[in-house]
Amino acid sequence: MQKISVLLFLAWIGFLFYAGIALFTSGFLLTRLELNNHSSCQEPPGPGSLPWGSRGEPGACWMASRFRRLVLVVIDALRFDFAKPKLSQVSGEPPVSLPFLGKLSSFQKILEIQPHHARLYQSKADPPTTTMQRIKALTTGSLPTFVDAGSNFASYAVAEDNLIKQLTNTGRRVVFMGDETWNDLFPGAFSQAFFFSSFDVRDLHTVDNGILEHLHPTMDSGEWDVLIFHFLGVDHCGHKHGPHHPEMAKKLSQMDQVIQGLVERLENDTLLVVTGDHGMTTSGNHGGDSELENSAALFLYSPTALFPSAPPEVSRFLRTYSAVAQDLQVKELHRLQNLFSKASADYQQLLQSPQGAEAALQTVITELQQFLRGVRAMCIESWARFSLVRMAAGAALLAATCFLCLLVSQSAASPGFYFRPLLIPVVWGLTGAMVCAGLLAATGLKLDLVVLGAMAAVGSLLPCLWKAWIGWGSKKPLTALLPMPEPVLLLLLIRFAGFFSDSFVIAEARAAPFLLVSLVLLLVAQLHWEGKLLPPKLLTGPRFGFLTPTGPSRHNGLHALGLGGGLLLCIRVSGLFHRCPEETPACSSSPWLSPLASMVGGRAKNLWYGACVGVLVTLLAVVRLWLRHYGNLKSPEPPVLFVRWGLPLMVLGTAAYWALASGADEAPPRLRALVAGALVMLPRAVAGLAASGLVLLLWRPVTVLVKASTGAPRTRTILTPFSGPPTSQADLDYVVPQIYRHMQEEFRGRLERTKSQGPLTVAAYQLGSVYSAAMVTALTFLAFPLLLLHAERISFVFLLLFLQSFLLLHLLAAGIPITTPGPFTVPWQAVSAWAFMATQTFYSTGHQPVFPAIHWHAAFVGVSEVPGFTWLSALMVGANTFASHLLFAVGCPLLLLWPFLCESQGPRKRRQPPGNEAEARVRPEEEEEPLMEMRLRDAPHHFNAALLQLGLKYLFVLGIQILASALAASILRRHLMVWKVFAPKFIFEAIGFIVSSVGLCLGIALVMRVDGAVSSWFRQLVLSHQRAGEQSSLVYTGAGSSAREAQPHLLPSCSQEPLAPGTSSFYNLKP
């Protein structure tokens, strides 16, 4: 029941955080209102009559058609500088050698030969610069919103008035070829269509080649009025290789040939429009609002001269939207309407009296530009309007939940902690949710799930906070509310305050390692203050610290210093894998973050591939050596057998996948289908093996070796404090009782061996590390599928992750005393260091809390081109982004287990039972082998309380981060960098918290599963002996280099199982 209470309470705490995040998000990230109004020829776009008088012409609506046909070519991610000519070298400056310059040479030739027939513009794309949002913006003329970026994986039909619908309504035949996203946005709108899957960004040619196959036949047939092509090769090349790769030059040259072919086939009444939907960053990604992402090329050409224009339809949209939404500023709306009316009047006057046309036309253009800029600014401000009430309520709910975590974690550290009251907040929360739902249903109001969840959270928080307030009173000082050490509190406050600075958030990749290094140095200093780096006799002066030594150290000073130095070295090396934020142009990202397929040199690629495979083998060897060191690798249980044979298969599958992925483009044409199939099946095989290993671990988590033997146990060796024969009466008094007991046991053994069957001895080995072995095995099974989602050279970071974790755990264990029989506790500095390391690893794996830095290639690992796999792709992108959060959250219980595991560093003196001094003097001092993690089972109540306390502390550290990001986003909501820095940071922190909280519950649940399996194992063993009616002895062991060398231990009282009648418990030196 205690285990269930702990898991339920942690899950409920997570729900409270989720409710606060959802409530804050509902007030911070608002979407705009979409109008279903559609324009018609009967409604003119502006005031007054249409001066051009063309309604009677066939196919004309508001104005005469200057072109009968349109060819629209969308080259995805066509950045403006891709269309620039190759500049000649300027004297005194180094030559510019960018592979994409000058590849679209047809633009420059046309502009030079026919300047009145062509125009090249720089188009500014409004963020978010994702493909689906940009297509909606191009076809509707509206602005995409920030939260629309989340729909890029799942597109929905456009309901607003749009260009495609207007063309089809006027009877135009619209033919489309290319990206299948258009089919999702405009289903059934095309008279003829050739859709190609845009799913795999590693595929540079399928979509483009499919378009080229149908382009010329369709164009020559003449059965079209509007022809739309959407090429994806440039965008996919940017994602896969980046804009500076030679493949980008090849792809742009191919697009140049396409444009030349179109120009040659154009008729005089046809307009050619070539445009990019957005740009790309220097790494080839997009989605944000940087200059390179917003910059796109727009090229217009026609065999006839270009082109007079007419006033836009923006004014009517503004008038309609303001009437429906009623959230535009009235004063600014009137000003813009008056400005548009004046521009329209000036335009009408210009048409009636052409005298001074040039100056008058410039005035009209200026007025219309001011009008359009004003409308854009007002709409952006309106669509970024916030609900301050919901934002404040969400932040308050997050703060209250953090406070609750702090209170309950303090209570769980007390010896008299009770678990039953933990379920009371859950009951109160469910009651509050039902009451709120009933009131909403009775009043007929709309049921808002976000508000309902918030009411449930408030209903569970209020009784707890009120009870804490009443119980606290004035008995304790205010400083007791923050029981963590002052240096740790200072570091947490620095991190909390840093979220309010855009410079800190941008430079967090460097700030996070600094905070982690500071905490590591603090841990080393703490060991010094506690007398664990120098012998106690040297700590005679107050200069060595303010703490007195608490006891003998389990680690010598050089060992602890070596752990700290190794940890600092790992942190420094992992910092070499970094991605520079866009705001620091002087910084250069690590070249090791890119996949091996993007490398040009074959020799260098092979060397890097060999190094990455070596890292895989090293990771496998480290895990197996660790399990062998503690003896768990000798267990015949299925998970251990899987570690022996399944893990090497996972390494082999990962290495084979990397080999094929890095050379897929170089494969012979007849083998490409086979390579493509293997690239899909190998990741699935590795993921399937990992899932099988986890299932086996959950099924049989007790990795112990059991041996049964008959015959009397061998007696212990006589230990003496002197060498040679006894030389004094004291020596005789010491050794004679031992000889007597030795003779007694030997005589008893001879008598028992004369019986037909001796007593049964059952020895269980490796119980002392059973919890940690299961955790390390589970983390290894999780790491390999997550590693597949990253670039090959990120494997070095994963190896450093394991090394850093082991070093930090050993360093923390050196300063955590083992209290028997409890209560057990994990200090705040350990939890904070673990959380800081998760953040540091997030940046070391090449991530940044911005959308352009998302590793989209992870969505296509092991996934075939099946539309139903969209959710799986989004899940894999999330697993790639938050892999460090998941691994450290699942491994968080190791902070509690590792100090007990490190008890095997040396034997301890067995405590003497009470007796007189003479008996104590003649009884030899015996060495007690460490019980290790079995000490936790000596006090199951304190064990469960420690797991609860650990989970709450970790959630508190993560909770203050999401609270800080929410407060920063709300306070700085009008800041210039809110949508570029603070809003993405809040979203990444929120998703990271959700992943971490789920992983934490899974890790604690795994420890409880192992604990329950150990109890079941003891119960079944004892019951089987009871049924057999045998006289038996039951012993267990902690750790050893192998099962043959392991030392068995007495069955602890924590098993809580009665031994069978006649069963004896004893201690053996050798099994």
From TrEMBL:
Gene3D superfamilies referenced in this protein's UniProt entry, alphabetically: Alkaline Phosphatase, subunit A
Localization annotation: Endoplasmic reticulum membrane
CDD domains associated with the record: GPI_EPT_3 (cd16023)
Entry annotated with the keyword Cell membrane: no
Major location (coarse): endoplasmic reticulum
GO BP annotations, alphabetical order: GPI anchor biosynthetic process
Assigned keywords, A-Z: Endoplasmic reticulum, Glycoprotein, GPI-anchor biosynthesis, Membrane, Transferase, Transmembrane, Transmembrane helix
Ranges annotated as spanning the membrane: 6-30, 388-410, 422-442, 449-468, 488-505, 512-529, 607-627, 642-661, 673-699, 770-789, 796-818, 882-901, 954-974, 986-1008
Disordered as annotated region, ranges: 906-929
Molecular function in Gene Ontology: mannose-ethanolamine phosphotransferase activity
InterPro entries assigned to the protein according to its UniProt record, in alphabetical order: Alkaline_phosphatase_core_sf, Phosphodiest/P_Trfase, PIG-O_N, PIGO/GPI13
Protein's membrane topology: Multi-pass membrane protein
Any single Pfam family the record assigns to this protein: Phosphodiest
Pathway: Glycolipid biosynthesis; glycosylphosphatidylinositol-anchor biosynthesis
A Gene Ontology term for the protein's cellular component: endoplasmic reticulum membrane
PANTHER family with a match to the protein in the record: GPI ETHANOLAMINE PHOSPHATE TRANSFERASE 3 (PTHR23071:SF1), PHOSPHATIDYLINOSITOL GLYCAN (PTHR23071)
Protein family per UniProt: Belongs to the PIGG/PIGN/PIGO family. PIGO subfamily.
Protein name per the record: GPI ethanolamine phosphate transferase 3, catalytic subunit
Organism lineage: Eukaryota, Metazoa, Chordata, Craniata, Vertebrata
